[in-house]
Design goal:
Rossmann fold, eight-stranded mixed β-sheet, 8 strands, 47% helix, binds D-malate
Length: 264
């Protein structure tokens, strides 16, 4: 589906009924990243996935950093008349989820931080973002997909599930150039979310693939230690997109977490 928020197109899917759960994808993905989750959780949930601005069917708009992504998510909840939701973010979507917490915490029922980290880019990573901006401007998103695909999935997926690697590569190579350029600024300039972790006081689930090389398990453990009462689940045989690589295991831990919320 596509709606206009503030005159800007936002692509989203909205499947099922029950506890509202909004999914935010990573870089340079689109909302189809969450196809294995939408409508497929054992917990009764209204599962919604949106394209972040500049990706999929969402128009680029102004470059607004991770805060802009968070504000779009809040605007979509307004549009759908949802007061509070579980916010699930993977990688860049996790950075946006932490920004959502800072800016819209009254709207958060619980947080799920997948294959992500709280720390900002170090100088070397910032330089790599600028190089990637030059690459995408010169050679398009296919070149970015070629560069990123091997780190995007774990060793097990690379060896055993080449179809998934192809599917992800296709998704990444279709990312609109402007969205990629703006997202690289959002990634490069994102704030340090480490101080944010200490004031998270809603139930939080942290999920990471044990073969994730982009945001490795040690980053997930640091967040787990810093967020009081958080739960950490490590998915065996999955890399950076654990929700696609081991969908049954991912859906199981997410469903269990959602059921624990409705039982409270
Ligand atoms: C992502 O998957 O969103 C990116 O790998 C995040 C990053 O590069 O920091």
């Amino acid at each position: 589906m596509i709606t206009l928020l503030d005159g800007r197109a936002i692509g989203y899917d909205d499947v099922g009924s029950g506890l509202p759960v909004l999914f935010l994808h990573g870089f340079p993905h689109n909302r189809s990243l969450w196809s294995p989750q939408l409508g497929a959780l054992a917990a009764p949930a209204r599962t919604m996935a949106m394209d972040l601005r500049g990706f999929g069917e969402s128009a680029p708009g102004e470059a607004g950093g991770v805060e802009g992504y968070a504000d779009d998510a809040a605007a979509l909840l307004d549009y759908l008349s949802i007061e509070r939701a579980v916010i699930v973010g993977l990688s860049m979507g996790g950075y946006a989820t932490l920004a959502f917490w800072r800016r819209h915490r009254a709207r958060v029922r619980a947080l799920v931080l997948c294959d992500t980290r709280a720390t900002p880019d170090a100088a070397a990573a910032q330089a790599t973002r600028l190089e990637m901006q030059a690459l995408v401007r010169e050679r398009g998103s296919m070149a970015v997909a070629n560069q990123m695909i091997s780190g995007m999935v774990g060793r097990t997926t690379r060896e055993k599930n080449p179809e998934l690697v192809d599917e992800l590569h296709r998704m990444m190579s279709l990312a609109p150039v402007q969205g990629v350029v703006d997202a690289l600024d959002a990634l490069r300039l994102r704030p340090d979310s480490t101080p944010t972790l200490g004031d998270i006081d809603v139930p939080t689930l942290i999920v990471v693939g044990d073969e994730d090389v982009l945001t490795p398990p040690k980053d997930a453990r640091s967040m787990h230690l810093a967020i009081a009462g958080s739960r950490l689940e490590v998915i065996a045989g999955a890399g950076h997109v654990s929700n696609m690589e081991r969908p049954a295991a991912f859906n199981h831990v997410l469903s269990e977490f959602l059921v624990s919320l409705t039982a409270q």
